[in-house]
Every structure is written in C-alpha cells, then in structure tokens.
C-alpha cells in the first residue's frame, strides 16, 4: 500500500454560535470565536489517498485528477467564503475544524475512485488540526464509551 | 468516520543525559555531547492528539480552552524553563531523553477528563521527534 498526500490551502471566515445557547453561554463556551462579525483563517488541507500503484502508470491515482476533485469539492465551495452562511453542507452545524474536516471527508470519499481516501487532515492554524479517518483505518478507533464532555 | 483533534504547545527546558547504571566513560560514549555535566537545552514542541464524539451543541471534540488549561497546568507550567533532571520528579529516576519525556507527558495528559488521549508527539528539535500512544505499560524506561 502506498499513501499519497496532496495539500491545498483555502481562506475562509466563520463564527461559533449556537442559537440554543443564551448570549452569555455562547460567549462562555466559544470565547473570541463567538464574535458576531466572524473572523477568518488560512486553512491548510492535506488529503491522503491509499492504494497500489497502477503497473501501467506507476500512479495510485492521477494527481491532476485529485487536484481537480479538490478544486471542485473544496476550493470552489469554501475558499473566500463565510462558512456559516455560504456552505450548505455546514448548515445547522458549528463550523469547527472537526465539523469542516468531516464535511470534507464526506465530499471527497465518494469522488476518490482509484485507491481510497485514507485521511483528511485540516489545519485551522499551524498549531491546531483535525485528522479524519474512515471506519476501520485504525487511528482514532478508541472512542470513549461515556461521551466526551 | 473517526476524528482526532491535535494541538501544538511549546516549552523550553534543559536536561543532561546521564545514566546512573553506566560508568563515566560509557555515559560519554553513549550520550556524547548530551552527557555534558552542565546540561544543555532545547525548545520542545508537544503535539497532543485527542479523540471523542463531536458534541452536537458545540461542534467540538473538546473545548480548546479546557485542553489548553489542562496542558498548561500539567506540562507547560512544570516543564517550561526548568532543569528536567532535577525539577521533574520522574527524571530523578529515569533519563530525560525525549522518549521518556514523551511517555511522562502522555501519562500526565491521559487524565484529561473531556476526551480520550490518542497520542503525544514531542519534537526535541526541528529534526527529531518522538511519538507515544500508550500501547505499552506506560512506564518510563529506566536506563
């Protein structure tokens, strides 16, 4: 098995606000991220595809094809957008790094037809990132029985 | 689908690699420059990965402010600008190699109550790093 990773960047704004919380609770839970005017990040996305190289081409998948998929599914949807209002896949969700990574996984997974999507890593800043794996990939398999919070 | 959240933290500290189980000559041979009796220091980077269900109300695996506070009190405050051999109790018994630092940090952070600790990765310099996921006994190894 060979793992191929391609990286892209996109810039977008967001804010964290749960309408079910009071204004005070939103500020307490989300802190600066609750600023109603929003704020932005330069997101870095690393997409890893696993597969065996095709003997005829030596490629797991054509990088050009992957580049086009990432452009269409991620950049065109999210680059220079306000994620809360302009990305329908995030409607009703808080656009945290966790939720954005999960949306990107669901967008890309059916489009990768040579090899299979192994990991989506989304950096919100160089010091904060989320890894998203499919079931059965091993990593992240130990979810706590009692819930996170 | 499984999600892991990772966060990077920094501390600067000094250490000396010297094993009480080895002779002076062997310590010098094994640890080289790192055996300098006066110690030396690094800017360490600690990458902490946690997992757990994403809370529907907040969209988060763990609230970063809570993770930051926990890592700050358990690791950064006790380790930053310290001489690890003397000022961290564990390293009075074991050699503060980055392997052992990684294990000690994992053991301190596994008590984080809001999510499951998956992995601790420690960069001693930009050129070497160590990862520990707690598969083994979780004891630091004496040298």
Description of the molecule:
The radius of gyration of chain A is 17 Å and the shape is elongated. Chain A contains four helices and five strands. Chain A has a five-stranded mixed beta sheet. Chain A has 149 residues and is of the alpha+beta class. Chain B is of the alpha+beta class and 143 residues long. Chain B has one domain: 6-pyruvoyl tetrahydropterin synthase/QueD (Tetrahydropterin Synthase, Chain A). Helices cover 28% and strands 30% of the residues of chain B. Chain B is built from four helices and five strands. A five-stranded mixed beta sheet of chain B has the order 3-1-2-4-5. Chain B is elongated, with a radius of gyration of 16 Å. The chains are: A alpha+beta (149), B alpha+beta (143). Strand 5 of chain A pairs antiparallel with strand 1 (2-15) of chain B.
Spatial sequence of strands, sheet with the most strands of chain A: 3-1-2-4-5
Q: Categorize the overall geometry of chain B.
A: elongated
Mean pLDDT of chain A: 91
Give the domain tally of chain A: 1
* Largest sheet report of chain A: 5 strands, mixed
Element pattern of chain B in H and E = EHEHEHHEE
Instruction: Identify the CATH class of chain A.
Output: Alpha Beta
CATH superfamily of chain B: 6-pyruvoyl tetrahydropterin synthase/QueD
Helical content band of chain A: 25-40%
Oligomer: heterodimer
CATH C-level of chain B: Alpha Beta
Mean pLDDT of chain B: 94
| Shape, principal axes of CA atoms of chain A | elongated
CATH architecture of chain A: 2-Layer Sandwich
Q: Which structural class should the secondary elements of chain B be placed in?
A: alpha+beta
Work out the strand percent of chain A: 25-35%
